[in-house]
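Here is the promised in-class demo. Please do not try to memorize the tokens; focus on the logic of going from shape to residues.
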């Protein structure tokens, strides 16, 4: 039996996997200790759980346990990385390089730094209409770097159009110039293979609720091997997390984050192939019902260009917001949930140079672990009906 509404907004958040919940539950109950309590078994149990979680996450991501700093989520991780490195590196220079299509959780801390006197260069990406729309050519990074550049920030996978950036090449460029590279990997970890052993990035943000874990917990990878990156803490207090992030550790959340990473990385190749197939079916179905629908973002092939579970499409002559309301029983969105407090047209689609009418006519579909063929068929039907109805109404 098809359960309604059908959830196709997995970039906004994901449901907690029952296996994650099960792993977390004891830490809300009898194992309630503070990981910082060193004088009794309650504390030791919590400390051991955090250490095991850190070990699991590090192993799965090709990091060392000391390179994982727990935070309250990717927004905090981005703030710690960008403000932390910029404040520390101020003597080196006050120039920062990033991209116009970043999430607000990167763009807003950069705006904060700009107000504090940093100069921020936001790079352009391949425009709409190109096969690889949304992609950042590493050459642009090379050309933007200056002697006084103190950090570069490029997201690994985009939350609206799913474009995957060439972080290996960008990292190489940054390494050659000795500039630290941060990546917002929130939409990438658990969705595509990520190995900090080989990927030349220095800082990477991630969040549990995007990988079937709980909300309010995440992490920052901080490279310690080789050229070690230095950060100024943004929260002072008890000195937890090697002094980089004070505050009592969220033990159940951290246990859930580790379980989420474990399950997602176990299932990665099969889940990527399954989602790719479902996404292609959805797009074929949409085009069948709405032949003039426009795909936003990069092509589906080669598969490395785009997240398997992402589809973003414009439906000419309809308003995306009206369409979303019209598609009852379908949970989708027009873009980032994190900016929907103020419904402005997507800055990501605008950065691609997409016509404003098309930006407003766009809908994001995020497929995930719970998505199946029956849901996709239902979605195809609802999209076709709703677009038809709205177009008939407008005349
Ligand atoms: C790319 C990206 N970065 C950062 C965030 C913010 O993550 P959190 O909700 O953990 O603060 C999100 C969430 O939408 C995201 O998609």
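The designed amino acids, position by position:
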């Amino acid at each position: 039996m098809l359960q309604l509404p059908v959830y196709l907004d997995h970039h906004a958040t994901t449901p907690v996997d029952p296996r994650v919940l099960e792993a977390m539950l004891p830490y809300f109950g009898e194992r309630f200790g503070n990981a910082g309590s060193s004088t009794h078994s309650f504390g030791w149990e919590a400390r051991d759980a955090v250490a095991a979680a850190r070990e699991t996450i590090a192993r799965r991501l090709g990091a060392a346990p000391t390179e994982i700093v727990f935070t309250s989520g990717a927004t905090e991780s981005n703030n710690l990385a960008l403000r932390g490195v910029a404040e520390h590196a101020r003597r080196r220079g006050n120039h920062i390089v990033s991209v116009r299509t970043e999430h607000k959780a990167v763009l807003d801390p950069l705006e904060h730094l700009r107000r504090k006197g940093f100069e921020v260069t936001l790079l352009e990406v391949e425009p709409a209409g190109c096969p690889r729309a949304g992609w950042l050519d590493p050459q642009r990074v090379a050309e933007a770097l200056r002697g006084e550049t103190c950090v570069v920030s490029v997201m690994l996978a985009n939350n609206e159009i799913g474009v995957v950036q060439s972080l290996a090449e960008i990292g190489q460029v940054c390494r050659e110039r000795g500039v630290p590279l941060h990546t917002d990997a929130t939409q990438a970890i658990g969705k595509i293979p990520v190995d900090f052993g080989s990927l030349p990035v220095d800082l990477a943000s991630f969040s549990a609720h995007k990988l079937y874990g709980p909300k309010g917990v995440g992490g920052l990878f901080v490279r310690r091997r080789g050229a070690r990156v230095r950060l100024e803490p943004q929260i002072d207090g008890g000195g937890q997390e090697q002094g980089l992030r004070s505050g009592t550790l969220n033990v159940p959340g951290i246990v859930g984050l580790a379980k989420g990473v474990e399950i997602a990385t176990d299932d990665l190749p099969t889940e990527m192939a399954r989602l790719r197939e479902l996404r292609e079916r959805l797009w074929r179905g949409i085009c069948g019902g709405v032949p003039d629908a426009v795909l936003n973002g990069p092509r589906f092939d080669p598969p490395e260009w785009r997240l398997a579970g992402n589809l973003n499409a414009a439906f000419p002559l309809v308003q995306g917001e009206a369409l979303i309301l019209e598609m009852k029983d379908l949970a989708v969105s027009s873009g980032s949930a994190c900016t929907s407090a103020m419904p402005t047209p997507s800055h990501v689609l605008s950065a691609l140079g997409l016509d404003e009418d098309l930006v407003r006519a766009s809908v994001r579909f995020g497929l995930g672990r719970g998505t199946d063929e029956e849901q996709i068929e239902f979605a195809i039907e609802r999209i076709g009906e709703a677009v038809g109805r709205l177009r008939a109404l407008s005349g």
